[in-house]
């Protein structure tokens, strides 16, 4: 029997097929990022290196914080990297070009030198930058729609795009601050952009992410809602940029507004996670007849702490291979529940549903066999008194399995 590729099954792609689109996209994004960095290095002098280091320093922590919200059904790392690089490359270089051309040929000739910077920052830059950042999300909606299972996915991808864009933009801001005001100016701008408000760009683009996620998981509003999300991203971005012209009072109002938007996004993520758990409890019991899942296993799948306990147990009884098998089982079961969510909303082709369902069940079966080949000496901790799909079935006509298995 041909070996199943767990990653390909979970990502819904053909095993072994070279991701040509991903390779091309990453290559183009990387070239754009290098061009943007080269421009900063050419004109930035010594301040460029200080700006580059400070722009990168908070990124690993910020990305880690966002990805903690995506543990129940984590997105493919390659797609997350692509979203980040699009923001750091294509979006940044495109914004540099279009914002510069807009200043030279539109805002300065129309509004004059004094007003041009305010108009460009408040209206022009949000339109250009959010369109460029959102382009990758609209591309995913067109080419990788099935990768977006809900609002959490839209927020996560939008945040990665925003972090990439913010990192590269900060290089420019930090370089300029160092060259104009020395270390004092650099320190002030780093505290503002790197510590106080590091989530600004991810927050803006999350509005587009919400719209795209709606379109991927609903039949109604598939065209209007993503456009509304993009407009909301431009509005938040414009309010942020325009507030600098109204002193500390304007900044305080925008900070409070963005704080409440951030809280609302976190609440939305928690609510959707709870809904996913509810779907696991609703849909997975119907597969009890396959022997792949029991009520005890559903209980294990419903919480992050019980999932961690299951992976620890798997590593104890079978080493790293068994731990990977348990992870595959958990992710496949979650994807199966989310697949039913798509069917429930009528946004999935019936033939694709059947093929995807069978592939996920096949992965769950393969993961389960990793344990049954060498039966564990102790019962899974979530099924001490009840059967589990990870315990050998009792002999025909024989007594139930010993709970000490």
Automatic annotation (TrEMBL):
Pfam families: PrsW-protease
Segments of skewed composition (Pro residues): 390-405
Entry keywords, A to Z: Hydrolase, Membrane, Metalloprotease, Protease, Transmembrane, Transmembrane helix
Residues covered by region (Disordered): 377-405
GO MF, any single term: metallopeptidase activity
Transmembrane segment boundaries: 20-42, 48-69, 81-106, 118-143, 150-168, 188-216, 223-240, 246-271
Domain of life: Bacteria
PANTHER family to which the protein is assigned, alphabetical: PROTEASE PRSW (PTHR36844:SF1)
Protein known as: PrsW family intramembrane metalloprotease
